Amino acid sequence: MNSTPPRNPLRDRWESGGAAVGTWCEIPNAFTADILGRAGFDFVAVDWQHGLHGFESLLAVVHAISVGGTVPIVRVPVNAEWAIQKALDVGAFGVIVPLVGSAEEAAAAAAACRHAPRGVRSYGPIRASGAITDDPDHVNEQVLCIPMIETVSGIANIAGIASTPGVDALIIGPYDLSLSMEIPFGSPEIAPAVEAVLRAGVKHGVPVGRHFDTPEAAHAGYEQGFSFVTIGTDREMFAATAVATAAAARHGVRTEIHVQTTVARPVASAAE
């Protein structure tokens, strides 16, 4: 057993009333994950659901994020015991569980995160022992179970989900929720559903998070009452920076050529 097992910094931040900011890791590469881990985020969510990760890259990027001192969280592909267990076994400090629509589904996710007697997670701390600890009681206290609320049924059953023992936080998935509500992305019609999740979080003492597309929107989210946010993905940040850099370089070259041309021609004409 580890003599001084580490605490989960994200859990500590929430318990002290602080807010947290994170991003998504979709690229299955340890080097880019290491960059995210050193960028200043409080946590990085590894997207095993929609990202390009296989199990081998999952292990590598979770470790790389941890090396940078940032909390690694994994969004599992499905609410299933095997997926949650594998994500935690590689050293994730918690899981985001997609498409949770009922208290029963939330309870299943929470149980998969914890060892007996609090849950059904099997004991096999091969990689997790070096990340959190090999003490099952400490693990039960430190890992985070974060159901994702992104369906009409999730909104309808939000009180039961938020009050489920073992649920540590909730996160809203605005895109799938919009699809489930049959409204366009970005529609203000989503607001009542979002408010319902925030109210449930406050009532039951559960932090609530949401994905935002811009830092400005995230700041507004904090004002609205969110305890944590995710902004962008590594793929989006890489693509945006690459496009902006190429455009700036191309504009600079064109400007230089234009200046040289307009200056050179009058001088040549005068010499004639």
Shape: globular
- The low-confidence parts are 255-272
Order of helices and strands: HEHEHEHEHHHEHHEHHEHEH
> Tell me, what is the CATH class?
Alpha Beta
Tell me the number of strands.
8
Taken together, the total number of domains comes to 1
Can you count the helices?
Answer: 13
User: What's the CATH topology name?
Assistant: TIM Barrel
For CATH, the homologous superfamily is named as Phosphoenolpyruvate-binding domains
Rounded mean pLDDT is 90
Rg on CA atoms, Å: 23 Å
Percent of residues in beta strands: 5-15%
Described by strand count, sense and barrel closure, the largest sheet is:
8 strands, parallel, barrel
CATH architecture: Alpha-Beta Barrel
Widest sheet: strand ordering: 1-2-3-4-5-6-7-8
**Helix-residue proportion:** 40-55%
Class of secondary structure makeup: alpha/beta
Alpha-carbon distance between the termini? 89 Å
